[in-house]
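Review session, final week

We close the course with one last complete record, chosen because it touches almost every idea we covered. It is DUF4328 domain-containing protein, a protein from Streptomyces silvae with 269 residues. Go through it on your own first, then we will talk.
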Amino acid sequence: MLCTTCGTRPAASAGGQCAVCAPVSPAPPYGPTAPGRSFSGLRSPVGLGRATVALLWAVVATDVIALAAGANLRRVYPGPDGGSFYDLATANRAEAFYGVAGGLQTLAMLATVVLFIIWFHRVRLNAEVFDAGLQPMRPGWAIGAWFIPVANFWLPHRIAIGVWTASARTGTDDGRRTVSKVPLDLWWGVWVVSTLFTWVASKYYAYEQEELAPGREAVTLVMAADALDIVAAALAIVFVRKLTRMQGERASLGPAPLSSVSPAGPASV
């Protein structure tokens, strides 16, 4: 049963309200905290956040290199009319450059995925300290949710919303602050589209190679996927920086006493 006031946390009182919304005895503003509300389990996400952002920039850089390599390859590949004035040696060099660029992309992406998930798990653990009642899934899912086929297109987003909401409660007047979750939703939407588009483009390019007839259309499709990946990486940088900063601001206030939290429910984010 959810709280009858905020509708997000489990009910914990006879009146059907959660521990935050249930009436408590008045206390001086920012007085002694309620039992059990401690920030002792917090760990700073700043270092991981900075490293993740650095690797995301590496993803952007390798995507730019891949775009340049793709443009060069597209120039030497035959068009729809089959015409091309470049010799085989030139085409081989262009394909070799394209292969190196693809390898750099793979290395940067793998390193970024590993570090991003570690950072994501860290901020999820911090959110458990800020407000465990707002978290829809256990902390371990911040790692496992990414590896479930199909479900990984929405489960991590669901977890991120809980982390974002808990981290946004940083106001000094009543313990809350409204923070738009546009950076989160925008990054997630573009990432999903980019992932699916990249899968389609890579499958088409692989098919063309198997047919021994790769053309400009296949290369152009992969280049479009690279451009979309740049946008997704840039939005991920904004998301990581924003959430890391929010958690730092929230932690700097310390655990707010239950009496200073407004019964109006969780912040709208």
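Two points worth writing down before the exam:
The chain has a mean pLDDT of 82.
The longest helix spans residues 88-131.
Good luck, everyone.
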